[in-house]
Amino acid sequence: MKRFSLALLSAMFILPLQAQETLSRIPVPPSVIARISLVSPKIIIEFAPSENFTLTTGFWLRTSFWSTNAYGENVYNPQISPSFTLEPKFYFNLDARQENGKRTDYYSGWYVGLPFNIEFPDLRYSIGGTVGFQRTLGKRWYWNISFGPGISYYDARFHASGAGDLGLGIILNKM
Q1: Potential cystine with 33: which of 46, 92, 138, 160 (Cβ 3.0-4.6 Å)?
Q2: Tens-place pLDDT, residues 161-173
């Protein structure tokens, strides 16, 4: 009886201590992820300062074919202008995806973001709130979609606009 009670007492103290160990089963992605989006051509670098938070920066060349003249008419005026984006993202379901056996490498999952864009040379600024989903395909591909409301500032006025991104591309670094 003494051995049984000693084994029971040991199990009561040792098993709960082992249950409190926090072993993260999420594969740790690299702290910097480089991507090239092919659908909306863009170079993207995603910095990961913490487990669920990233800071994404991107550079692309915006193209436009039409502009408005002084009379308010649309005129054919092709232009290529550089653009820059900065977006903090918070991934809110990586643990649940991992528990369900889904991929979480390279931050595959749902996120909320706050994209800020600057378009040159006419200095258009825009900011918005987005909800998005990013997924890794195979070892080197990914797709991303996000959308939400936004506000743009150009021509000395604020305009309601949409915010978001659609991307399909290649991951440049290896896990």
Answers
A1: 46
A2: 999 999 999 999 8
